[in-house]
Design brief:
The chain is an alpha/beta fold. The protein has one domain: Alpha/beta knot (3-Layer(aba) Sandwich), CATH 3.40.1280.10. The chain is built from five helices and five strands. Helix 3 packs across helix 5.
Length: 146
């Protein structure tokens, strides 16, 4: 499975950039990860660019209206997608103004990391950490504790 992490704007917080690089590296033994930042603009322009860039991929859209799940449930979802032979997954992280309704409707899954709203760099970092956690759960490694 190849993960395409699409986000708006380059990380400016040095600690977030360090964490993002760390978790992207940790994920390499488990899955292919490609992170791509798109140019900030209006909500409509950002959503259009994210839609275009994710064409043909299984779309996971991070959104406050999405499902709240546990890390174990995320690992189970990844198992299901692998069993369905999903090849390319786009994780879509919007800018400061969020997503358009059109982008939300295009999602194969709407995922909420929390009831809190995160700045996009932090959402990217948390997303990568949760993907790493899910893969370690699947592999039976001791990273996750119940």
């Amino acid at each position: 499975m190849r993960w395409h992490i699409l986000s708006i704007g380059k990380p400016k917080l040095s600690f977030a950039a360090t964490g993002i690089a760390d978790y992207a590296g940790r994920l390499n033994p488990f899955a292919q990860i490609k992170s791509e930042t798109l140019k900030a603009g209006t909500r409509e322009a950002e959503s259009a660019a994210l839609l275009e860039r994710s064409t043909g991929m299984f779309r996971i859209v991070l959104d406050e209206r999405g499902d709240h799940i546990t890390s174990r449930a995320l690992a189970a979802k990844i198992d299901t997608w692998e069993q369905r032979s999903v090849k390319n997954v786009a994780v879509i992280i919007g800018g400061a103004d969020g997503h358009t309704e059109e982008l939300r409707r295009s999602a194969d899954w709407l995922w909420s990391l929390s009831k809190l709203t995160f700045q996009h760099e932090l959402a990217l970092l948390v997303t990568l950490e949760q993907l790493y956690r899910a893969y370690t759960i699947k592999a039976g490694l001791p990273y996750h504790r119940d």
